[in-house]
Amino acid sequence: MSTRDTAWAPGTPCWVDVAVGDVDSARLFYEGLFDWSVESGPPEFGGYSNAFKKGRYAAGITPQMTAGEPAAWTTYFAVADIDGVAAKVTASGGNVVADPMDVADLGKMALATDPAGAMFGLWQAGKHTGYTIANEPGTVIWTENMSTDWVVNKGFYQKVFGWDYDDMSDETFKYATFQVEGRVAGGLGEIAESADATGAHWSVYFAVEDTDQAVDQAVRLGGSVIRPPWDTPQGRMAIVTDTQGASFAMMSAPAEGY
């Protein structure tokens, strides 16, 4: 388990939220799957809700900004100077799709896409520093970017966030973990164009005690299975959707634990 009550280091994944058409339906699904306690914010925040695990910030649920958009999870990265980082996004080949804005005294946010088209967020912490619990069942354990433009995206994120990489590629796949202040914080991988049905994207992985049981529970709650559980050296994984089609991954740790 990881807990944190101060702002995350710049370039670190620090928050995730899911944009949906029906916040109440999403609340019931994720409370039933991850044992979250979801609390709606005040009216001035437009229906945004925070999900808590053990009394700590775990994720957010937000109404979609535009009706009819696909439901989706978004990963946000900590920044110290959101205007400066937004300028780097544009200068490095990405696009800022929502300019930096104040969110009361909680912080500042922006939304952007990388050169391959994957959406991500920027968060400059105020009173809200991002998730304050991670790496335990029901919370974020991993984030990764998948696209057909792996080399381009590696260069883009290095320019924007200053990431260092540990290349894990071989003749069968291309993948690298990225590091912030010497610690692994996520990954970037390449997918074949023929398999890129969802387009470039950032995936959110949630830790669970038992992947097979979690998948069964997701289905009982109205979700769908995109990829059934499979074993990896990092743990047993699966990819599912919630009741509104937002996809995410779940992973139970190998025998040595989290």
From TrEMBL:
Pfam families named in the record: Glyoxalase
Top-level taxon of origin: Bacteria
InterPro entries the record matches: Anthracycline_SecMetBiosynth, Glyas_Bleomycin-R_OHBP_Dase, Glyas_Fos-R_dOase_dom, VOC_core
CDD domains the record matches: SgaA_N_like (cd07247)
Domain VOC, residue spans: 12-125, 139-258
SUPFAM superfamilies per UniProt: Glyoxalase/Bleomycin resistance protein/Dihydroxybiphenyl dioxygenase
Record protein name field: VOC family protein
